[in-house]
Amino acid sequence: MLCSSCKNAQASLRLPYAPLSFCPACFKAFVERKVQRTVSKHGMVKGGDKIAIAVSGGKDSAVLLHILNKLYPSAEAVGIHLNLGIPKYSDECVKLASELFKLEGLSQVAIVDVKRCLGFSIGDLAQTRFRSKLCSPCGAVKRYALNRIAYEHGCVKLATGHNLDDTVATLWDLYVRGEVEQAVKLQPLTPSSHPKLVARIRPLIELTEFEVRMYALYEQLPILEAECPYAKNSKLLKRKSLISIVEKEYPDFKHTFLKSHVKRITPRLTLPEAKALSECEQCGMPTSSRVCSVCRLKAYAKT
Ligand code: SF4
Ligand code: ZN
């Protein structure tokens, strides 16, 4: 089969949700155009922005850094990697993230040891009552630490590698549980609501996991294929496999779901005004309670 774009080379992949087949070169150009459209549609990158890019060692964040670096070479980028302290797994992640930073020629890089920064690691939390549901506190730690490091580096945006599959799986759960306020906040661009809270951008939000994986493969980016040893309890992975069943009957399900959320549902919702964020009594970072969730986790990690 010939490539749908150049009509010259042999196609090496077919998109499951559209009648399109691509050769590797046209596929990479297609993915980059898709990201560029998402970025410009949502005003994610403005001239002179200092952008923090979260790099985990996995495929999504590697593709994120590679494409942003390629499309916006004049943006000031700070690469951030968190060493979560997960036995063996985190050492591999640090190695691959460092290799990627070097390959991409990033001059500003922060590789931060979570234990040194917060006083406990995700490996430490695995020894507490959180052991069977680590992803939830781990997610809170990552959001907190990435924001704090981005803020301390003077960045105005924090880019993360969430793809379409991750986003739809999260939204699905929020809608099912009626957590409307949380769902509304999940947008391609979440603006800052506190001087110490850096705006979030998700440039890969319209790319499927398949597109990200194939792009990483064709570009030969250094990525960790192994899964986190705690992922077997991840609700996100369970939801993603459920969605893949729906997709077999409804191939465009994920794109339609996201489009409805961003364009049709959330603009029509009127939510009560959110309580202004205050600052945590212990660390000074933004929170809606007296003490932020990460400072509360610190206390559990010590017990
Ligand atoms: Fe953290 Fe869960 Fe991801 Fe492992 S799978 S890095 S515990 S969120
Ligand atoms: Zn705190």
Write the layout of secondary structure elements.
Blueprint: E1 13-14, E2 21-22, H1 24-41, E3 50-54, H2 59-71, E4 76-83, H3 89-103, E5 108-113, H4 114-118, H5 122-125, H6 135-152, E6 157-159, H7 164-176, H8 180-185, E7 189-190, E8 199-201, H9 209-218, H10 235-249, H11 253-265, E9 278-279, E10 286-287, H12 293-302
Parallel strand pairs: 3-4, 3-6, 4-5, 6-8
Antiparallel strand pairs: 1-2, 7-8, 9-10
Helix pairs in contact: 1-9, 2-9, 7-10, 7-11
Bound molecules: iron/sulfur cluster (SF4) and zinc ion.
Note down, in words, how this protein is organized:
The protein is an alpha/beta fold and 303 residues long. 46% of the residues lie in helices and 12% in strands. The protein has a 6-stranded mixed beta sheet, sandwiched between helices. Strands 1-2 form a two-stranded antiparallel ribbon. Strands 9-10 form a two-stranded antiparallel sheet. Strand 7 and strand 8 form a beta hairpin. It is globular and about 60 Å long. The protein binds iron/sulfur cluster (SF4) and zinc ion (ZN). The site of zinc ion has 8 residues, from helix 12. The site of iron/sulfur cluster has 9 residues, from helix 6.
Task: List descriptors.
two-stranded antiparallel sheet, 303 residues, 10 strands, binds zinc ion, single chain, 12% strand, binds iron/sulfur cluster
